[in-house]
Amino acid sequence: MNNRMLGNATLAIALAFASTQALACGEAAFNAGKGLPYQGYLAPRPATVLVYASPDPTASDADRAALYAGLTKAGHKLTVVKDPAALASALRERHYDVVITAFDAMDTVQAATADVGGAAGKTALLPVVARSDRDSPQLRGHFDLFVVDGASLGQYLKMISKALPANAL
Question: Tell me, what DSSP letter sits at residue 95?
Fold first, then answer.
């Protein structure tokens, strides 16, 4: 037997005994039954989202517009309001799955949702906090989920998805 034939035979034997756990390219990143929820910035569970005031005061108008466009493109139904009267009106007119606002404005949002009552009580509140406040006891004591100012679209999508009830598929 020449060296080439011996090499081919060795390779064939090695492949025969190789683990059957070999994965195709990229398959390791895929969780069976769960898909890739944020790939391509698609929301795995589209939600109705209300954004009150300017949730991230450090963001420019262009950054806010890009975020809002990204949330909409991902499949969320987005409403943006800028004052307490518009907030209360929006909450009376429609149920929202998630309300996003600056942490400093959360008292206004909680008061508006309490005034509306009913389905608004099931609305998840998602505050946007300054990086320096992310470990504050006031935040951690009241909110399990939040977004840090300057967060990417992917972080917003992730937190919105986590804020939705498990049965809201």
Answer: -
The residues, ordered by sequence, that sit 6+ positions from 79 with a Cβ below 8 Å of its Cβ are: 48, 49, 50, 51, 90, 94, 96
Average pLDDT over every residue of 100-126: 82
- Tell which residue, 160, 121, 126, has the closest CA to residue 142: 126
Phi, psi torsion values for 148, nearest 5 degrees: -85, 140
Question: How far apart, in whole angstroms, are the C-alpha atoms of residue 31 and residue 163?
Answer: 21
- What domains, with CATH codes, occur in the chain? 39-163 (3.40.50.2300)
Name the token pair of 115. Answer: 């005034």
Q: How far apart are CA 15 and CA 31, in angstroms?
A: 26
Task: Return the residue matching tokens 């390791």.
Answer: 28
Listed range (33-37, 150-154, 165-169) with the worst mean pLDDT: 33-37
Report d(CA 168, CA 154) in Å as an integer: 20
C-beta neighbour count of 41 within 10 angstroms: 15
Average pLDDT, the chain: 79
